[in-house]
TrEMBL record:
InterPro entries named among the record's database cross-references: HTH_17, SinI_DNA-bd
Listed Pfam families: HTH_17
Domain of life: Bacteria
Taxon lineage: Bacteria, Bacillati, Bacillota, Bacilli, Bacillales
Name of the featured protein: Helix-turn-helix domain-containing protein
Molecular function via GO: DNA binding
Cited NCBIfam families: excise
Helix-turn-helix domain segment(s): 9-54
Organism the protein comes from: Paenibacillus solanacearum
């Protein structure tokens, strides 16, 4: 999963990987749903954290599906 991406990605790459917008990407980072390291004003995100987020999302039914 995500083999074509570097081991550490930026917010822009995270957006591309998940097909989400900037606000959604920062929300996931700020709420620690995806683990990251903030260096100065920029986030660095381990690809493994993105993979774990996707796998956890697949395991848990979404709220929309339960309504």
């Amino acid at each position: 999963m995500f083999y074509d991406y570097d081991d550490i990605v930026t917010v822009e790459t995270l957006m591309e990987m998940l097909g989400i917008g900037r606000n959604s990407a920062y929300y996931l980072l700020k709420t620690n749903q995806i683990k990251s390291v903030k260096i100065g004003r920029t986030y660095r995100i381990p690809k493994k954290s993105v993979q774990e987020y996707v796998l956890n999302s697949l395991r848990q039914p979404s709220e929309a599906a339960t309504k």
